[in-house]
């Protein structure tokens, strides 16, 4: 009985911690120097100045159909109409990529200085070209964070868009390749279906990130409620938060369905080398049709501890 009371108490504490993923500052702020974005046409103008600061001042319901190519190093923040306070804003997207040499997403890539905050993504991001093991990745907000990038923040955002690609597919980011300082990925929630179907060992898929290459990138206070589906490749992995992870994953949860052929994890598909997973829980169905399935981590290549995990098997 004591064991069940302790488990119940732990789950309640975790739920309370995770209930407030999205938080907005209540203080009056001055975003008057930020360029206002109120339409898909306005958003397209970011291409001419990808290092600028932008405030999304109303929901964009007519979809953005072209991603911002190259490296985005500016700021994109959801605000109220007069740019005096933070506010969650919707950006609808219908983005289709065909070039396997670049990342695919709202932004192709994030680099040093980039910040995205208070944005909900609706619609779809997909890749219809020929998949390649060298392509960066596909993500709702960005295909990748570039190698060596520093001072990047993606926080207080929601993805409701469906994300579909061959390899390194994430609800927010396809690949996080930076080992630089001050990378913040926090307060992110994926509700969209995320799918990687390419028959390749690089076909890793996650609700937040497809492939995270370094522990220098902490993934904190994030959650997935969407369905994450991986491929039939022998080495492919699927995770509710990260598909293949070298990163530190802290205070994260999954309630979505995870399915793939070989390695399915409620939080992480494979935890590699320096990866560390702390205070995470899963209540979603995890299904590997021909291999390993686990509530937290399906496959571990790390000597680091998985600390304080909670996995509650749902009714089937």
Commentary on this structure:
The chain is mainly beta and 316 residues long. The chain contains two helices and 36 strands. It has helices spanning 2-18, 40-44, and strands at residues 35-37, 53-56, 60-64, 68-72, 75-78, 89-97, 107-110, 115-117, 119-127, 138-139, 142-145, 152-159, 162-165, 169-170, 173-176, 183-190, 194-196, 205-206, 209-212, 218-220, 223-224, 228-229, 237-239, 242-245, 248-250, 253-254, 258-260, 263-265, 268-273, 276-278, 281-282, 286-288, 292-294, 297-302, 306-307, 310-311. The chain has a 22-stranded parallel sheet that branches. The protein has an eight-stranded parallel sheet with strand order 4-7-11-15-19-24-29-34, with no helix packed on it. Strands 10-14-18-23-28-33 form a six-stranded parallel sheet, with no helix packed on it.
């Amino acid at each position: 009985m004591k064991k069940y009371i302790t488990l119940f108490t732990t789950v309640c504490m975790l739920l309370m911690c995770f209930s407030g993923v999205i938080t907005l500052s209540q203080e009056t702020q001055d975003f008057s120097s930020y360029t206002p974005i109120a339409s898909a046409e306005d958003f397209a103008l970011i291409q001419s100045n990808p290092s600028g600061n932008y405030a999304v001042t109303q929901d964009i319901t007519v979809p953005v159909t072209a991603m911002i190519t190259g490296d985005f190093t500016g700021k994109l923040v959801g605000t109220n109409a007069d740019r005096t306070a933070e506010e969650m804003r919707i950006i609808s997207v219908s983005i289709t990529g065909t070039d396997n040499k670049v990342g695919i997403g709202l932004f192709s890539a994030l680099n040093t200085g980039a910040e995205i905050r208070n944005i909900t993504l609706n619609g779809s991001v997909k890749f219809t070209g020929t998949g390649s093991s060298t392509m960066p990745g596909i993500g709702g907000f960005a295909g990748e964070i570039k190698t060596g990038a520093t001072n990047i923040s993606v926080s207080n955002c929601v993805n409701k868009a469906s994300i579909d690609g061959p390899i390194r597919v994430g609800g927010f980011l396809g690949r996080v390749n930076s080992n630089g300082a001050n990378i913040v990925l926090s307060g992110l929630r994926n509700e969209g279906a995320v799918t990687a179907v390419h028959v390749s060992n690089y076909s890793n898929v996650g609700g937040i990130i497809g492939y995270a290459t370094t522990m220098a990138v902490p993934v904190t206070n994030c959650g997935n409620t969407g369905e994450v589906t991986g491929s039939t490749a022998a080495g492919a992995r699927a995770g509710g938060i990260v598909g293949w992870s070298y990163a530190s994953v802290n205070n994260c949860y999954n309630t979505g369905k995870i399915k793939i052929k070989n390695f399915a994890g409620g939080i992480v598909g494979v935890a590699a080398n320096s990866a560390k997973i702390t205070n995470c829980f899963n209540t979603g169905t995890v299904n590997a049709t021909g291999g390993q399935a686990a509530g937290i981590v399906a496959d571990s290549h790390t000597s680091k501890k998985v600390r304080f995990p909670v996995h509650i098997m749902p009714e089937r």
